[in-house]
Write a sequence for this structure.
């Protein structure tokens, strides 16, 4: 069992593709301005305009990264809104808002 993909609303596909590639994901394919798929090699995230959303709404993703501080720095430099990192019992995490207004958690595991 694995997650095949998660659909995320995308009003500005170019801006959201830029955001997710800066996060470190790779573009799998793009279908005009209505849909694009990005992946970490395991999970695929579908960036979809209104015509491609099975259910209109918002999605909260959690993306594990290797270096939270470096990622936060890159995203802030690109103009993203990011909360200060919080340390939990198993991870450090921050809440990010992508260019489409979708909340996303980025986190790194504590060793």
């Amino acid at each position: 069992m694995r997650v095949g993909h998660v659909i995320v609303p995308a009003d500005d596909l170019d801006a959201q593709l830029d955001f997710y590639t800066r996060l470190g994901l790779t573009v799998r394919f793009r279908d005009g301005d209505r849909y694009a798929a990005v992946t970490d090699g395991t999970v695929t995230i579908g960036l979809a305009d209104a015509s491609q959303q099975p259910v209109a709404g918002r999605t909260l993703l959690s993306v594990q990264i290797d270096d939270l501080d470096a990622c936060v720095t890159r995203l802030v430099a690109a103009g993203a809104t990011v909360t200060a990192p919080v340390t939990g019992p198993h991870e450090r995490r921050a809440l990010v808002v992508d260019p489409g207004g979708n909340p996303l958690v980025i986190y790194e595991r504590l060793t």
About this structure: The chain is about 20% helix and 40% strand. The helical segments are 13-23, 68-77. Residues 13-23 form the longest helix (11 residues).
